[in-house]
Amino acid sequence: MSSEPDVGFDSAAAVDGGEAFEAVVVGAGPGGAAAAAVLADNGVETLVLERGVEAGSKNVSGGLLYAEESAPFALDDLFPGVREAATERPVTRNYMDCLGDGNVHTIDLSGVHEHDTAWCDSVLRRRLDSWLAERVHERTAAAGAGLLTGVHVDGLLWEDGEIVGVTCDELDPIRADLVVAADGVNSELAREAGLMDWDEPEEWFQGVKATVDVPPAAVNERFGIDENEGVARLFAGDLFEGVRGGGFLYTNRDSLSIGTVFHLDSLAAERAEPHELLDALLTHPHLGRWLPDEYEEREYAAKLVPDSKKAAHPSPHRGRLLLVGDAAGQMQAQGPIIKGMNHAVSAGGLAAEAFLEARNRRDTDAAGERYERKLHGSGLFSKLKPRRYGAVGRLGEREAVADAVDDLVDSRLGRLGVRVAGGVVGRAFNSPFLLGALPDTRSAYATVPTVLAEELGAPVDAENGAEPPSLEERIGDLTYDTDVGNAHIELVDDGYDASGAAVTACPVSADGFGGGCYREETVRANGDEERVVSLDTQPCIECGTCAVVAETEWTHPRGGKGVDFHEG
Amino acid sequence: MPEIDPAEHDVSELGPKVQSIEDPEELEALLSAERDGENRDAVITVIESRLDRIADDEGGGDGDIDLDAMSVAEIGNALQDVEDPERLRDLLDRETNGEDRDPVVRLVERRLNSVEGGDEGDTGGAVTDREPPEERHPELDHPTADKQYVTALDDGTYRDMWVYCETQAGDLLDVSRELLGKARELMDGYNEEYVDGNAGEDGGGEANERVVAMLVGDDVADHADECIALGADVVVVHEDDRLARFRHEPYAEVVADMARWGADPPARDEDRAPTPPSDADWRDYDEPRYLLFPATNNGRDLSAQVQAELDSGLASDCSGLSIEDAGISNPVKTGDPGSTRTFERVLHMKRPDFSGFEYSTILCLDNPDREFHPQGASVIPGSFEAPEPDPGREGLVVDHETDLDDDWFRVEVTEFDRLSGGVDLSGHDVVVAVGRGIGADPTGGMELALELADAFEDAAVGVSRGIVTGSYSFDAHVESYTAEERQIGETGQEVTPDVYVAAGISGAVQHKVGCDEADTIVAVNTDPDARIRDWCDYFVEGDLFEVLPRLTDAVEAGGLDAEAIADGGGGVTPGADPATDGGGANE
């Protein structure tokens, strides 16, 4: 503190009229929470800005939160009591159901599920993130700042070509020695800094999820578990019409998280409707084993998932800006295992440590370099982007190779091989090493599981009477605070060729559906006909799909505006 | 040998110790001890970076403050790092013997004063050599440097709470009413708290302080009675046909002159003493004690200029006001470090910070050597309740007279447009709304909707959000009907007509909330599974391009009127098969 407050040469903030903090953390998800907690606990004046009305209201995840034994940070070390207070159930069993031709063949994934796992809980993000945010606010407030919700950080504050802080829709610009961008998969900060882009659909997955209401006792009874146990099931095979991806089901305390995850390039190329693919899973007879008699959906949600094998940034920093979690593409999706939140927690902790070390040396500008060294030195980066994937995986994804593998597996010889080697395949899906090398082709998602089911499976004997709501009903059931007159997405090119893929790929739009975001229209003018796309951002659930598959100027809505997820 | 043996500590313990060592020799000794001993990279890094840091601080004598080569601002910054009074004295000598720039000399003297912490030259707390801010910060492009004309009063008298009552297009704004009500409430409390209730106007002691309303414009005097009824004791009016529309300069001049009542303000650039206010039998003070403005576009514009002209401060965009005493220990305000002074009758101005996440309370307090009056605020509209007018209240209306300088009107308003308040679809018997069902021929569909609306006695045309956000190209004669201002639904208007005709609208819940309260809802849609079928009263399965003309014919032929439909009668006889929703009214 200056003893001479009226002489302010050193206070640029006082001249600008903006606020200044040592650190600004953008986004109060697990990554931002971890970074803020470590910073604040070490006395760094840390301001956390969250754009939702409450932390968690903008967050969606499939729902498994892992704590790895090898990780530098675990959420329950940083936030004691989090598992008791804010997660759903410990996931004690993990299976993959291969479906094909009315048969199901189940592989036990315990091996890979338990590998390096300290614990794994199912989570719903509104509950988890809002609980974390309360702790973060207490701790950051004690260090001289705090957590503000309803603030949308819309850009970086630059000075002489250097990043010196952030700008917001709601507040004056804020200066800081450290800016942690934990603002999620569609990080506007990462894009403004030129670190990430939305260009390549093959770098992304799209996840769509329904949270289904089931009383706790019914969860226990249907899955044969007690209240301290939980089940994860993955689904692959012939139920998604050849779109590359799979399904999942996780048990929560009093609900089920059921969803699908597809490669965005495949989804866009097949013109598949995400909500229909989700319905294909929800109404599959096999799911009848677990779904309640009266299907009641609490919430429909979606999110874009970066494929860290391709999108993880090896050097996720620029100047004072450090990227953490999804913002840096740190989302590990290899084979059936998806790990994102745990890596975000580790990255957040490492970013904070890097800043603290740099600050101790009076050289805060070195925080980014230190963070990068820690990402690589801790082994985190090699989990996100295994070297062996570079050798085998990329090659395997080439269509010719994929076709050859498919043909082989599907051939009489291949089928025989599968029959003989069924156990081997099960082991392969349980090998973290092999999964790291596994190419993301339909071989992994569709052909192999389908053949497994056909050759080794038992008939599906359940019946499923679930009637999921229509897309219109799903949108109608969501809570929105529409920012009337301020559309947050602009369609730059409304030509069908440029942006038509959004009509189907957007999880709240559909071909022939007028109540969604993207709609195809035919404009007749002067005797000409033109296929165009129109956009209404009111039903938007802010997943970012259209930023990748259409020509848009994409930003998040202003603070507190837009969709408000209650489950997440 | 260094005082600490590095080998006995690990890196985390050494870090803080090293950071506290100031002596480079000791650090060098420590460094060589570590190199000879454990030779840990981390420890060496810590010590080396500390050495670098100290070298930066010291800069090898005064070589880093090269007075001749540095600007005043650079010197100012560099001085902040100099702690040693001897070095500062040396700098001072060098400057006085060299370029001898006044601002530099002052900066060094100030810094010297600051590092010596008042041990020497005890000023007894009183600030003796006061400098105006622009002299204290010569390097800054300080806003007050331009304000060369006016300075604050010295030992002025301040009374009453003044309220700028904004009018627009001849009407008193609601926020002006809200401000008058709040001012009344505040001054009633003020008088009870601070003014001896027995003191009369001429009975010695203090008189009650008043609420003074200001009306500026053309033809605004009519509002004086309302201002009094709302709580004003005095209304000061300035009318001039050139003031019919808000303009920054003449309005600011007039309002500032009202506050000073013709006084010639003290000047900064010459030693001009202030002249007292003009004689007035209704006021005996120099300037208002408090001054409130509405935080409207014009009010913000005006308030900043007026408060600057009066050489006071402004708390902008406030949402809460109270008058209380405040104990202050900031030496800038008390003039005496370490003491606390109670400021009386302070207007506490609460304003939302961080967009309302937190609140600051702004106090505008006199310094020992400079007065900050009037205490001024602009207030966000809607912050307070408008009071019930009391037509029995009595008050004084005073005309303010001053010559308006032609120069103030240099900026001319050449053109203005009053934005329409949008289209109000409520209050009609019938609303005909169309949606994306018109896609095959958007202009034709709108024409059909307009024709049907024309056939009714009192009907309006609205659209669904799908039309507003769609890419349809409409011909000019119908385009205005497809704008956002006619949108019905959650993000548009809510209508409650007797009859609501929804043609080509699927009926998403967002649309439903805009028309659900209509007495009777008639839907026309080609899709028998459209959601609207669940909540309409009559569902006509058919193409609106066929159905709407027949509905129009029926209405024109008198076979159908709004009341009849609403009553469940009328003759819905379109050719398409009318399906009905439960009610069975299929005639």
Automatic annotation (TrEMBL), chain A:
Protein name as annotated: Flavoprotein
Record has Oxidoreductase as a keyword: yes
One Gene Ontology molecular-function label: oxidoreductase activity
Species assigned in the record: Halobaculum saliterrae
Needed cofactors: FAD
Domain of life: Archaea
Gene3D superfamilies tied to this protein: FAD/NAD(P)-binding domain (3.50.50.60)
Domain FAD-binding intervals: 22-347
From TrEMBL, chain B:
Protein name: Electron transfer flavoprotein subunit alpha/FixB family protein
InterPro entries given in the database record: DHS-like_NAD/FAD-binding_dom, ETF_a/b_N, ETF_a/FixB, ETF_asu_C, Rossmann-like_a/b/a_fold
Chain segments carrying region Disordered: 1-23, 110-148, 263-284, 566-587
Residue ranges of every copy of the Electron transfer flavoprotein alpha/beta-subunit N-terminal domain listed in the record: 161-413
Compositionally skewed regions (Basic and acidic residues) per UniProt: 1-12, 128-145
Record-stated family: Belongs to the ETF alpha-subunit/FixB family.
One GO BP annotation of this record: fatty acid beta-oxidation using acyl-CoA dehydrogenase
Organism of this sequence: Halobaculum saliterrae
GO molecular function: electron transfer activity; flavin adenine dinucleotide binding
